[in-house]
Amino acid sequence: MKILLSEIFHSIQGEGPNLGRPSVFLRLGGCNLACSWCDSKFTWNPEISDNKVATINEVVKKIKSFPCKHLVITGGEPMLQQDKITAILKKLPGYTAEIETNGSISSKISPLVEQINCSPKLRSSGNKPYALKIKPTNKKAIYKFVVQKKSDLQEIKYYIKSNKIPAEKVYLMPEGTKHTEVLTRSKRLIEICKKEGYHFTPRLHIMLFGNKRGV
Ligand code: SF4
User: In terms of pTM, does the model score above 0.85?
Assistant: First the structure.
């Protein structure tokens, strides 16, 4: 069994409930969407992608080479390769994992992960609206919305109401790949979170390292 892989590296989780947790990032290749502001186009855009094909054993060996037993499975859209992720996790007893997804594909691997970071894409992403397949009744799911402009906030309000997502499961994160724009948007978002009872999540990797890969 082979997996389409982008990169594996050791860092800290820079977003969401596990912010700051040391993690091995398993970034898979391929995505079923094409967000205009995607900060990981190298995982799916053939013009800039350096994806490789790896065996399950090669991936497991690389993960085990780091002194860390928490995995962040990201992409791209990792739910496209759930069977392969399952095979990897079965070879990693004692590890915990969280998975990041755009929410357009049903999860078969919820029992194997401790958290699903679902990030539904809004109209400003340039994608057509799609049905949410990761339901809020899934206790492991949280919902992270990337906010680019003011109109996104109205859309988020409508989205969470129509999908029955409780405010305490919602995380707002500023869009941006530059330190100053992320900082300015963060300050605005914190006020919205205080008002609506959402969580705020920073974009720590951008704040610390800019738009650099593998850090
Ligand atoms: S869903 Fe995620 S990986 Fe795919 S294009 Fe959008 S931001 Fe990029």
Answer: yes
